[in-house]
Amino acid sequence: MTNPWWLIPVFLMHWYGWEAVSMHWFRAEAPTGASAVKTDTLPERFGPGAFGFGRPAEPAQVATLDIDVRPDGTGLPAGSGTVATGAVIFAAKCSACHGAGGTGGPNGALVITDATPGKRPAKVIGNYWPYATTVFDYIRRAMPFNEPGSLTNDEVYALTAFLLHRNKLIDEKTVMNAKTVPAVRMPAQASYVPDDRTGGPEIR
Question: Cα(181)–Cα(168) distance, rounded to whole angstroms?
C-alpha cells in the first residue's frame, strides 16, 4: 500500500473526535440564498409559541380535572357518605386490588394491620397520610384503578368514611362530608413539617 489515503479520515477522527469529523466530512452544507428552505411558521390563529395542532380546552373539560382538594377542605364537593355504605362499595369495587377490608392485596394494604416480627409496618392511610382530605381527593381522582373518576361524590365520601374507620380514626356512625373530613386529625400529620432550610432556593 503505497498510498494509504483511507488512513486520513481515521487519523482525523482520532485527533478531533468522531462527532466533529463526522459533521465536517459527512454533513451536507445548509443551502443558502434563494434555494434555502424557509423555516416553518405557525398559523396566526394559534398564537406565538403554539404547536399548531389541537384546540383550546372547553371550560367544562377543565372543570372535570380541576377537582383538587386542599388540607383545609377547600374544594370538597357537596355530598356525604357513611361507613356502612362504604363497606359495600369497597367490597364491590376495591377489594380485588386491596384485599378484604383493605388489609392487603395485589396493590397493597390501606389499613394498619398487625405488625410482622422483623418487618417494618407498611405505610398506609392510618400511619402515613397527613390529611384525611387526601383520602377523598385521591379516591375521586384515581380510583377505582380500572375506571378512575367513575365514582359519585357520595360514593367517594362513603369510601373515605370506611377507610378512616378501618384505620380506627372515626367511629362507625360518623358521616363524612365537606365539614367532617377536614376535621379528622391524622396521626402522621405531626411528622410532616415545613421545609425551613436556608442557604439555597426557597420553595414554598
Answer: 14
Report the distance separating Cα 101 and Cα 109, nearest Å.
9
Residue from 196, 74, 194, 94 nearest 139 by CA: 94
- Tell me the CA end-to-end span of the chain in Å, nearest whole number: 71
Give the pLDDT score at 56. 85
CA atoms within 13 A on the CB side of 74: 4
The per-residue pLDDT of the chain, averaged, comes to: 83
Give the pLDDT band (50/70/90) at residue 25.
very low
* Nearest C-alpha neighbor of 86 from the set 143, 128, 148: 143
Residue 177's beta-bridge partner residues? 80
Residue pair 157/69 in contact (Cβ under 8 Å)? The answer is no
